[in-house]
Amino acid sequence: MAANNGEDQQNQLSGHxxxxxxxxxxxxxxxxxxxxxxxxxxxxxxxxELREMTEKHPWNLMATPPDEGQLLRMLIKLINAKNTIEIxxxxxxxxxxxxxxxxxxxxxxxxxxxxxxxxxxxxIIEKAGVAHKIDFREGPALPxxxxxxxxxxxxxxxxxxxxxxxxxxxxxxxx
Length: 175
Ligand SMILES: C[S@@+](CC[C@H](N)C(=O)[O-])C[C@H]1O[C@@H](n2cnc3c(N)ncnc32)[C@H](O)[C@@H]1O
Hints:
- With 175 residues, the chain is α/β, with parallel strands linked by helices.
- It folds into two domains: 1-42, no CATH class; 66-171, Rossmann fold (3-Layer(aba) Sandwich), CATH 3.40.50.150.
- It is 50% helix and 11% strand.
- A four-stranded parallel sheet has the order 3-2-1-4.
- Strand 2 (107-112), helix 6 (115-127) and strand 3 form a beta-alpha-beta unit.
- Helix 1 (6-20) crosses helix 2, helix 3 runs antiparallel to helix 6 and helix 4 (66-78) runs parallel beside helix 5.
- Bound molecules: S-adenosylmethionine (SAM).
- S-adenosylmethionine (SAM) binds next to helix 5 and strand 2.
- It comes from Lotus japonicus (Lotus corniculatus var. japonicus).
C-alpha cells in the first residue's frame, strides 16, 4: 500500500469517527487503534479508493466498515467459497471485498434495489479486475430469492450469503 501523507491520514481519521458508530467495539479510541494498526495496512488499494469515495456520499453510514470487509474476506477464504450471494450492495465495499477474496472463477449474485448506488463504485470494481465475478440485479431481493428457492437445481449451489439489507424479512429465507 502506498504511504500516506499527513492530509491522507487526516482524511482517514475523520472517516473513522463516522464508521466507529457501526462498530461492535464501544470505544472509538480502541476502534481507531485497530483500524490504524491492523485494518488499513491490510486494506486493498481498490477498497481504500472505494471507501474514500463512499465517505463523501450523504448515506456513507450505510457502507460496510473496513474491519467487517476484512472479516468477510477471512470467512470466504476459510470456507473456500466460490458461489455467493450479496443482498444490499450500496456502493460496493463488501461486494468488492468478497470479489477480491473469491477465486478467479468465483461468482457473486449481487442484489440491490438501486443500481445507481452500485454504479458509483463500479468503475473502481472494474479497475480492480473483478467485475466479471459479479452478476448485479436491480430490484428487491425477496422475489429473486423465492425464484432461486423454487428451482431445485439451485440446492447446495451457494456457499456463502451476506445479507446487508432488510434483515428481518430476509432472515426468514435463511434455510
Ligand atoms: C446497509 S446498505 C448495504 C451496504 C453494503 N453492503 C456496503 O458494503 O456498503 C443496504 C443496501 O440495501 C439496499 N436494499 C434495501 N432494501 C433492499 C431489498 N429489499 N432488496 C435489495 N436491496 C435492498 C439499499 O438500497 C442499500 O444499498
